[in-house]
């Protein structure tokens, strides 16, 4: 495998890249990155990529803070010369053994299948939780997410509020209870707790089949894990409603099967890999 860091050439601007991507329609970057290889662009994709900003990478030189930086994991070595990009490439063959502790970061598109259709797990978790809370107080579950929240806030009694408090207490946002929270804030933090737990369970499912396990904080006995930067990415070129969600995960993991984990790195995780999801960045660390 090869790991490359790809940046715009010094005489190019991010606006020019945006036009290049637009010209290639739905899979702009994916199509553009085919151009760094010598092989037939019609073959099956065998690379993963991730976009970051120069300001996040502490890169020197003339780079603007908002300039994009791309990391590309590929089976084939990219060409050194390219019309648009400066490419730094090295062989990537991490030596992994059982018990190795790694920090990681990955951008994912986590989905769940329901009625043979894929659904964003975060929106799915939010709607399921809101519906469950409404059913417990005998109220209608119809409407938008905003409708459901308003209905809960209007009709939830003290018993229901206590349930929300207990859920927050048992989750990763328990410190919020040190503040004086109103009904609306308690609802929001309980909902966020449910979402974070759902995402954590999704990541644990990846761990069980891909040769690693989550590392726990020795003081709190909770997983060293965090999700952030959830967003919807529209694809208007495909159709008005098309798009995908993305979410950044970070934390620490321990390898328990090096062969499985190596394949996990090679193949990436989740859906929407053609849009920059799935590439797992790792670094050795110590507890």
Summarize the structure.
By secondary structure, the chain is of the alpha+beta class. It folds into two domains: 2-91, no CATH class; 101-284, 2-Layer Sandwich (Alpha-Beta Plaits), CATH 3.30.70.
Explain this structure to me?
The chain has 287 residues and is an alpha+beta fold. The protein contains eight helices and eleven strands. The protein has helices at residues 14-23, 28-34, 54-57, 121-136, 145-155, 158-170, 183-210, 258-267; strands at 2-8, 47-53, 68-74, 85-91, 101-108, 111-114, 117-120, 212-214, 225-234, 243-255, 280-284. Strand 6 and strand 7 form a beta hairpin. The protein is globular.
Reported CATH architecture of the largest domain: 2-Layer Sandwich
**Shape by Cα distribution:** globular
**Biggest sheet record:** 5 strands, antiparallel
User: Unreliable segments (pLDDT under 50, ≥5 consecutive)?
Assistant: none
CATH superfamily of the largest domain: Crispr-associated protein, domain 2
| Whole-angstrom Rg | 22 Å
Integer count of domains: 2
Helix-and-strand structural type: alpha+beta
Number of helices: 8
Number of strands: 11
Distance between the termini: 28 Å
Instruction: Provide the succession of SSEs.
Output: EHHEHEEEEEHHHHEEEHE
| Average predicted confidence as pLDDT | 88
Strand content: 25-35%
CATH fold-level assignment of the largest domain: Alpha-Beta Plaits
Query: What is the helix fraction of residues, given as a range?
Result: 25-40%
**CATH class category of the largest domain:** Alpha Beta
């Amino acid at each position: 495998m090869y790991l490359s860091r790809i940046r715009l050439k010094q005489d190019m601007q991010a606006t020019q890249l945006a036009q290049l991507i637009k010209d290639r329609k739905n899979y702009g970057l994916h199509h553009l990155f085919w151009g760094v290889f010598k092989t037939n662009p019609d073959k099956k994709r065998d690379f993963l990529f991730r976009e970051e900003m120069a300001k996040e990478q502490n890169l020197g030189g003339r780079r603007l803070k908002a300039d994009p930086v791309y990391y590309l994991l590929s089976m084939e070595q990219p060409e050194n010369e390219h019309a648009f990009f400066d490419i730094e490439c090295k062989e990537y063959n991490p030596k992994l053994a059982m018990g190795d502790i790694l920090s990681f970061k990955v951008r994912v598109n986590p989905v769940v299948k329901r009625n043979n259709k894929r659904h964003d797990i975060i929106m799915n978790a939010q709607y399921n939780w809101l519906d469950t809370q409404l059913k417990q107080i005998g109220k209608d579950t119809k409407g938008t997410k905003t409708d459901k929240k308003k209905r809960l806030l209007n009709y939830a009694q003290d018993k229901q509020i206590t349930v929300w408090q207990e859920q927050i207490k048992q989750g990763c946002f328990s410190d919020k209870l040190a503040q004086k929270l109103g009904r609306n804030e308690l609802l929001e933090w309980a909902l966020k707790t449910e979402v974070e737990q759902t995402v954590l369970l999704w990541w644990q499912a990846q761990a069980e089949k891909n040769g690693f396990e989550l590392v726990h904080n020795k003081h709190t006995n909770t997983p060293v894990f965090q999700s952030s930067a959830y967003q919807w990415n529209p694809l208007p070129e495909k159709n008005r409603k098309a798009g995908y969600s993305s979410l950044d995960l970070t934390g620490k993991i321990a390898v328990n099967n090096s062969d499985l984990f190596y394949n996990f790195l090679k193949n990436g995780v989740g859906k929407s890999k053609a849009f920059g999801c799935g590439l797992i960045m790792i670094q050795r660390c110590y507890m």
